[in-house]
Design brief:
By secondary structure, the protein is an all-alpha fold. Helices cover 90% and strands 0% of the residues. 3% of the residues are buried.
């Protein structure tokens, strides 16, 4: 069984590490690095939604094609 609380803590720790690494390598403040990371996460979520919408469009078109076939 997966201990989701442990996974969440590891995830948060990893995000803190990534934020600090971005800040150090890019010469950014930690808040700027966190903003950059947040933007990447929002883009990833948008990509997922776009993929779902595309799949639903294809399903709808297949239904229409089956009606007129």
């Amino acid at each position: 069984m997966v201990d989701w609380e442990k996974v969440r803590k590891i995830h948060i720790t990893l995000l803190d590490y990534v934020d600090q690494h971005i800040a150090d390598t890019a010469g950014l403040s930690k808040s700027s690095a966190q903003a950059k990371q947040s933007l990447r996460a929002r883009i990833k979520v948008t990509e997922v939604y776009a993929k779902i919408v595309d799949e639903k469009k294809i399903e709808a078109m297949n239904l229409v094609n089956n009606i007129f076939a």
